[in-house]
Amino acid sequence: LGYTHVTVFEKTDRIGGKAFSVQLDENGEPCEQGIDALSRDSSCIAYDLSAASMHHGFHAVQVLLGEYGLRAPAPVGASAVRSNLTAAGTFLGIDAFLIRVTEQYIDRKVLSPPAWVNALAPSLAAASLLMMEARRYNSLHRSLLWDVSMSLPVRPTKDVLSQLALSLRDFLKKNNFVLLEELLVVALSFAGYGYIDTIPAYHGLLYATPELINGFMQEILNP
Fold first, then answer.
1. Quick one: pLDDT at residue 211?
2. Residue 35 has what pLDDT?
3. Cα–Cα distance for residue pair 169/26, rounded to 1 Å
4. Model-level pTM?
5. Which of 126, 135, 195, 213 has its CA 20 to 30 A from that of 28?
């Protein structure tokens, strides 16, 4: 590109992104794995710390897997969540986790569902509230960034930037996205993007597109 003086800033002493392989022995200590490492020390194993799951926005990956006849490393949306809602040593799928959280919020009066929602069974009421919030989020997202599913968004206006001049968590709180806040706490930290307390709202919205949110909603409707 013609640049001759470039400075790269990294959070750690390793240059690279979140996809990273480490080599550990049976005690969890770093080890070296050369050409003949496995014959010398079978406990020195490489662990790939790359993407552990795929969401519905991984279009190119899905196309390439199909083109080369490969099996996906994990089903789209495969997720496991541990929290105060799970028994020791057990996990919840993201769909079950969100339903449980929503049911708790209804019980604790954190949410005030309309009368027709209160008349539904608990799990159906929770799913309905999630869908309503997702639809509201998607509408706001499109009004701010238009369509970012296939390319970078258009340059934000000063007004849009002023609305996004806060952390992702503060943006979600400001717009009363109570349930999506719980979802994105898991989704962004799990994917290695960081914590919503420190992620700028603009960057968070670039990741949490309507397509991503709709993908999670599909998991809830079709567990």
1. 85
2. 47
3. 39
4. 0.66
5. 195
Average pLDDT of the chain is 77
List, for the chain, all residue ranges whose pLDDT scores fall below the cut of 50: 35-41, 50-52, 78
| Integer Cα distance of 85 and 76 in angstroms | 23
Instruction: Enter the tokens of residue 86.
Output: 């799970």
Residue 204 near residue 196, CB atoms below 8 Å: yes
Rounded distance between C-alpha atoms, residue 68 and residue 64, angstroms:
6
pLDDT of residue 152: 61
At 149 the pLDDT is 54
For residues 137 and 181, the answer to whether their CB atoms sit within 8 Å is: no
Spatial distance between the Cα atoms of 223 and 220, rounded to a whole number of angstroms: 5
Can you read off the two tokens belonging to residue 60?
A: 């190119």
168 vs 187: CA distance, rounded Å: 13
Asked if residue 214 lies in contact with residue 142, where contact means CB atoms within 8 angstroms, the answer is no
Q: What pLDDT is recorded for position 223?
A: 61
Greatest C-alpha distance within the chain: 68
Q: Closest Cα to residue 48, out of 17, 20, 78, 15?
A: 20
**Is residue 51 within 8 Å of 72, Cβ to Cβ?**
no
